[in-house]
Amino acid sequence: MAMTTAMILALVVLVAMILMIMFDVLPFGVPPLACCVLIVIFGSVFGDALPELEKPWDISYAFAGFTNNTVWMLAFFMVILAAIQKTQMINRVKDAMTKLVEIGGFKSYVALLIVVMLGASILGMGSTAFYVLIFSLVVTMPYNDKLPGSKLMLPLGIASNHPLIPINVALQYGVAVSILASAGLGESISMMQFAIVTFFLSAGFFVWSVIGYKFLPSHPVAEPTIENAAALSGDGVSAMEPWKEAVTIVSFVVAIVAMMFVDTLGQLSYIIPGVASIVMLLIKVLYFTEFRDNLFSPIILMTAGVIPVANCLADSGLSLMVGNGVASIIGVGVPPFVLLLIFTLLCSTFACFTGSQVGIAMIFAPLAIAVCQGLGYNPMAACVAVVLSAWAGHYMPIDGLPAMAYGMGKYTMAEFWKFTIPQYLVRLVFLCAGALIVFPM
Question: Does residue 145 fall inside a structural domain?
């Protein structure tokens, strides 16, 4: 199949976005917006040469992500997440961890993993505030031979990204749903199905962390800073009135439940998080600046901006052509598990090096879907596995979480890799297996 003008232009947009993300040309969240502008320019300049397109590349097309149901649901939910992090649940997690570290030993290590993973269940995958809190707690603990900080820093930091009970997977779920919609698939996935696959990923992390305990070194970690001490003492967390905290927790639960039943509630499900976020503003749990900054956070800008780029790839036929090409190279005999493992390895590696989980997932998931369609496989498993794999890197200390763990834990690269590389591979194996169990191909 020959490349058309639309395919070439879509490829230019894709490559431009990848390069801007990889080399930090623009601040996080801006590269997709720049590509949206580029789409409009291409549509205006080359419009007459794009007869194969059903929809013109105009402003409404290029910025369609900002009228996407899922994007607004996620944006409002980011506001609720900012509110829930002001509750005393954070302090309760810290108190429980402190007691376990004082006891020490392998059993306390396992219990700490469970405590942090339960915290991640509430705050969700990729919560920067949560893993910074965990690191701050570990460095302020006195050295204990029975459970030194070096055996906690790395596993507990990564545990903050793995919910034990995946009730809050709204961000990753929204990305997956957006990708499926951009690919033109009529089928959908429920948040319950997505949560089950997420549990497999977390189970893989937990299994290796239990095994990998003996591979972790025993030495003191970095000295606490003033900021760490403040985080431990709770100086950064304002005491909230009991009734406000109750309303915040109820709003959080209601929003989660609404998103879980999106297939049943329809439009109402998308807007309930918006109602809950307005409540947070009305009762003054959040100030307007906090509301605004979370509603239009870089992650939301990234999610909304990447949707039109994915649409360009699909509408121009480039995704289908690449998918069919890869399918023909791989051959019809490739097992679905191997196919998923290849794409999850690619996606997680690029996300690990760029630090852009949402952007990279939006790039690789449509390609994985196209390849599955070319091979006649159910693309749902590929979509979910590839999206989740974007948050499953951590084997290079170049992004926020692994970089902080590496530095604050005073690890050598050999010590770091001895734990993270096997963990990385084990997690992807569990992830791919879980995706295929939930969505047989």
Answer: yes
Query: How many Å apart are CA 64 and CA 22, to the nearest integer?
Result: 24
Residue 92 domain-assigned (yes or no): yes
How many structural domains is the chain composed of? Answer: 1
Total count of residues recorded for the chain: 441
Q: Which residues span the domain enclosing 222?
A: 76-166+205-295
Q: pLDDT in tens for each of the 441 residues of the chain?
A: 578 899 999 889 988 887 887 677 888 678 889 999 999 999 999 988 787 788 899 999 999 989 988 789 878 988 887 888 788 876 676 677 777 777 878 998 999 999 889 888 877 776 665 776 677 677 766 677 788 888 998 999 899 889 988 877 877 888 888 888 777 776 678 888 999 999 999 999 999 999 999 999 988 876 554 444 444 444 444 578 999 999 998 998 898 788 767 767 878 988 999 999 999 999 999 999 999 998 988 878 877 887 888 788 778 887 667 766 766 777 667 888 999 998 999 888 877 766 667 777 877 888 888 888 888 888 899 999 999 998 888 888 766 678 778 877 888 888 999 999 999 999 999 999 999 999 997
CB-based contact 357:121 (threshold 8 Å): no
Q: Is residue 133 part of a domain?
A: yes
Q: Is residue 10 part of a domain?
A: no
